[in-house]
Amino acid sequence: MTISLKSILLKTIQNKCIDWHRHKKIINNHSTFIIDNSPLYEYDIDNYILRSELEGRIEKAMANLPEKFKEAFEMNRFEGLKYQEIATKLNVSVRTVEVRISKALELLRKSLIDFL
Question: From first to last of its 116 residues, what are the pLDDT tens digits of the chain?
């Protein structure tokens, strides 16, 4: 009995396609289950509103920071720079960067205390 390479390849491709469709069905069923049974799904609109309000408050609080505090804070939190890198870029000591970031955090906390 001889089996041709063509028939083996066709059968392999057919089985892979069947496996792929089964896998997609499992993923879709799981996604539907998660959405239907998630307790947080009901609160998505509320969470969206709260998040939008919080983002607005943070932007406003950031705008009110002194420029030197804001600059060091953004370099650390948004650009991911380390204190030493910030100190080098700003031509200040690492301790100065530490103080500026801690003061920025303190001012942000005070600005957002009624939201928290």
Answer: 678 888 889 999 999 999 999 999 998 888 888 777 766 555 667 777 888 888 888 899 999 999 999 999 999 999 999 999 999 999 999 999 999 999 999 999 998 888 76
Degrees, nearest 5: CA angle 96-111-115: 135
- The residue ranges of every structural domain in the chain are 41-112
pTM of the model: 0.58
CATH class of the domain defined by 41-112: mainly alpha
Give ∠ CA 90-106-115 in degrees, rounded to 5: 130
